C-alpha cells in the first residue's frame, strides 16, 4: 500500500470509530448502557434509531461481559494488564476505574496517532476524566500520547508490528503477566497477513494471555452483501471476511496461530445464552421497537470470540448460562431457481411490510408498506395492481380515488379478498408507538384485467360498525375459514402498541363483520406474531412466528373444525422444522410451503420449506440466486402462489439493514417450484 493510500485508509477507519462513539453515546442516553463517560468522549451528539441502540448495546454488553470475566478470574493475581487495539474514543478505562475494578490492572490503548492525540487532549481538558487518570507524565516520548499510573495511550499504526512492539515496551507493557488483548471491530480493517501476524505475535510473546474479538461475519448472504457494500463505499473494506467468513473459520484461525482455547458465538446466541432473562426483558421494553428482522440479522452477522493460552484457571467467558436452542441448519434437499419477473420498471413494488393479495384471476393488489414513492423512502400510500397478460406480468400504479386519511399509510396489515370487487383490510400500523389501525373496505372494478392502464381505481370505504378495539393490531394473520357452512375470517396473533406479542383470536362473521364466539378446544399455541396462516380443509394452518421472548418458533398448528367448534391440533414435522418468522406460506395438494423468513441459523438463510401435511416430512430447498444481480432478501415480503404454473411470485421484501442502509428488493421474482411439487 502506498503512503497516500495508507493515510486515506487510516482516515476512513478513524471515521468509523467516531461514528461508533456517537452511537454508543446515544444508546447510553436511552438507558441501554450505563456509562456516564461516553458523552465526554464522543464529541458530537446525535439521536440514533432504536435498531442502532440495540446493536450497540449487544456490542458493549459482549465486550464488557468478557472484560469483567477476565478481571474476576485474575483478581487474586498481583498484576494484570489490558491492551485495547484500535481503542478509538472508547470509555473502557474510565468505566472500569470508576467501578473500582483496576486495583492491579494497567490499561494500554493503541490507535492511530491522530486519534490518540485527540483523545489525550480531551482527557487533559476535562476534569471528570483527568481526575480519574491522575497525574500524567511521560507523554511526548515517541508515540506515547498520554501516560498515567494505570493508563497509557499510544499512537501507533497496528499494521506496523515492529513499531507497535517497540512502543509497548517503551510504555512499560510486561509480557510476563496475564494480558487481555481486545480488538473491537479492528482486525477486519487490516490486511489479513498483518492481522494474522498480530494474533500470532500475541500468542508467541505472552505466556499467559487472552484475546477478545468482536467483528463482522457471514458476507455471502443478502444482508452480508449489503453490509460489505456499505463498508466498501466508506473505503474501509472488511478484509477478514475473504479468509474467515464464519465463526468456525475464526475459531480455526486462532487455534492455528498459537492459542490453545477458543470459543465463538454470534450475537443471537450471546443474547440468548449469556444475558439474563430479566436484562433481556429490560432492553426489549426501553423504547418502541418493530424491526425484529433487522435486529436478528445484524446479530447473526457479528460475533464475539474469546481465545486464551496459559491461563489458570481457564478463561471461559462464553460458556452459556442457559442451554442454547438447537439452531442446526436443515439438510438441503435441493434448490429452487429465482429469476426476475420482468418488472424492473415498477419502482412502486420496491417496498416491505406490505401485503399482496390475489383479487381476481391473474390480478394481484399490493397495498401499504415502506418503500419508494416519488423518489423518496417513506410509508407508501399508493396501491399497485399486477396483471398477467399473454404469459407476462405488467404493473399498474393505482392511486386512491381521493386521498383518504382512513388508509393511514399502514404497514404489517392484512388484506382478504371477499368477492371479485371487495377486499377487507384488517389492522396495520403507522408508527410502532401508535395504536393499531382499524378495518377498511377496498372496492375495485369487476374487470381489472380487462381495463386499460388508467382505468383501475381503488376506493376506500369505512366498515360499519367500527372495528372492535381487540382487532387493532399488526403482524397478525387473517384467514378465511368455514364453520357450519358459514364463512368467517379468523384473526390471530400479532402485536399492538401495548402488547409486544398477542396470542388471542377472533372469528369475524363475514357478512356483517361481527365477532362471533365459537368454542375452541385443545392446547393453545403460544403467543406469536410475524407467523404464517393458510386456509386448509375449512380450518387454518399456523406456522412459525416470533414468540414472547423474541425467539423464533418452530411449531405448526392446525385449527380444525369439529361439530360444535374448533380444535387446536399440533402437526409434528420430521426432521423438526427450523424455527423462523417473517416468512410467507401457501398450501398446495396437501403440502405446506414456507417461503423465506428469518431464523437464527447463521450459515444459511431460509429458502423454501415443504411440509407434507399427511406424513409430516419436512424438506428444505435453497433458493438459487445465481441469475439475480442484486441481493434477494426474503423477509417482510409478500408472495402469491400460481398453482397452474407451479410458480411463486415474490413481491417486495427487505428492510433497514442496521447502519448499512435500507435495502429494497428492486423487482418481483419468480420461483419455479415444478421440480419440487411433483404430483404423485
UniProtKB/TrEMBL annotation:
It is an enzyme of class 2 (transferase). It catalyses: 7-[(3S)-(3-amino-3-methoxycarbonyl)propyl]wyosine(37) in tRNA(Phe) + S-adenosyl-L-methionine + CO2 = wybutosine(37) in tRNA(Phe) + S-adenosyl-L-homocysteine + 2 H(+); 7-[(3S)-3-amino-3-carboxypropyl]wyosine(37) in tRNA(Phe) + S-adenosyl-L-methionine = 7-[(3S)-(3-amino-3-methoxycarbonyl)propyl]wyosine(37) in tRNA(Phe) + S-adenosyl-L-homocysteine. It comes from Alaudala cheleensis (Asian short-toed lark). Probable S-adenosyl-L-methionine-dependent methyltransferase that acts as a component of the wybutosine biosynthesis pathway. Wybutosine is a hyper modified guanosine with a tricyclic base found at the 3'-position adjacent to the anticodon of eukaryotic phenylalanine tRNA. May methylate the carboxyl group of leucine residues to form alpha-leucine ester residues. Pathway: tRNA modification; wybutosine-tRNA(Phe) biosynthesis. Keywords: Methyltransferase, S-adenosyl-L-methionine, Transferase, tRNA processing. InterPro entries: Gal_Oxase/kelch_b-propeller (IPR011043), Kelch-typ_b-propeller (IPR015915), Ppm1/Ppm2/Tcmp (IPR007213), SAM-dependent_MTases_sf (IPR029063). This is tRNA wybutosine-synthesizing protein 4. The gene is Lcmt2. GO terms for biological process: tRNA methylation; wybutosine biosynthetic process. The keyword Nucleotide-binding does not apply. Interacts with RNF144B/IBRDC2. Gene3D superfamilies: Kelch-type beta propeller, Vaccinia Virus protein VP39. One of its GO terms (molecular function) is tRNA methyltransferase activity. Its EC number is 2.1.1.290, 2.3.1.231. It comes from the Eukaryota. Belongs to the methyltransferase superfamily. LCMT family.
